[in-house]
Design a protein that fits this description.
The chain is about 40% helix and about 15% strand. By secondary structure, it is of the alpha/beta class. The chain folds into two domains: about 30-215, 3-Layer(aba) Sandwich (Rossmann fold); about 220-345. The protein has a five-stranded parallel sheet with strand order 2-3-4-1-5, with helices on both faces. α11 (about 285-300) links the parallel β7 (about 270-275) and β8. α4 (about 120-130) packs across α5 and α11 (about 285-300) packs across α13 (about 325-340). Residues about 60-80, about 180-190 and about 215-220 have low confidence and may be disordered. One of its GO terms (biological process) is cell division. This is Cell division protein ZapE.
Length: about 350
Amino acid sequence: MPVRLAGRNPEVAVERLLGEMVPPPRFDAVRFSTYVPDPAQPSQARAVRTLEEFAAGLGGAGGDGGKRSWFRSRPKAERTGPGGIYLDGGYGVGKTHLLASLWHATDAPAEQKAFGTFVELTNLVGALGFRPAVDALSGHRLVCIDEFELDDPGDTVLVSTLLSRLSDAGVRLAATSNTLPGRLGEGRFAAADFMREIQGLSARFTSLRIDGEDYRHRGLPEAPEPFTDEQVTEAAGRTPGAALDDFPELAAHLATVHPSRYGALCDGVEAVFLRGVQQVADQATALRLVVLADRLYDREVPVMASGEPFDRLFSPEMLAGGYRKKYFRAVSRLTALARDAGRLARTPE
């Protein structure tokens, strides 16, 4: 019997929020050795070497030998090299692979290093409060922020202030940022934008440009044709670990759950089945769906749906607006998960 995501209201302990700040399952096995630089793009091999050196400078005992101490600070370790690394480049050049590899290569217990997206970090601050979030992370050796986003000034200032406090506490930082589709040349200025936004932190970061084929040249991926309501319902009924929801009901329910709990919302779910996907009409709902898409993608949960195809989930106005980078990413990820769901439609012999 499928469960309903719209019927779940998970409670998440602080320890879990912090404990889940690790690379997602999709990046469990990545390492610097599994990143294959393009010989035509020397910046890729150069980035690997620089990050390997950065990771080597993070070693040493420190802390309490691996005992969990989310809210206790540790003595500052003597640091060598830059306090932060910023990976600047377009879509599809392997920045997240390299950031996760840095996390894995850092010789420290998991509770002394954190990995999360910009959205997850802002959600953590929202769930804990600013001061508790600083206390919780200030004992870390490394904090990695994937997809640092410059489309929301309030969030950018919030996280910039948080990173300043962590850097002052001796925490090393690493961040990535994608360039926006459809804005020619922005990749050349993303690093400058990042440095301007974080102002006082700029002197502590080394910027690495990673060149390569840019996602912008491919545009929006074409989503597979949606299924019928009957096909979705039938497939959900025979799929172990299925969650079956009507899209409008799920979209409304997400407004009642803090985004930091969307991961817990998906606990035990092996596949998501959605009936009646509609184009989203308001920004708040759209942004919540972006977070849900990220959590499903991180967990490699296929999504089988009826209604509108996912490349029409957001209106043309939204795809041209200030949050378009988030929406392009969500469409790309939901489309990939919809393709993965093709196997669920086949009736077992």
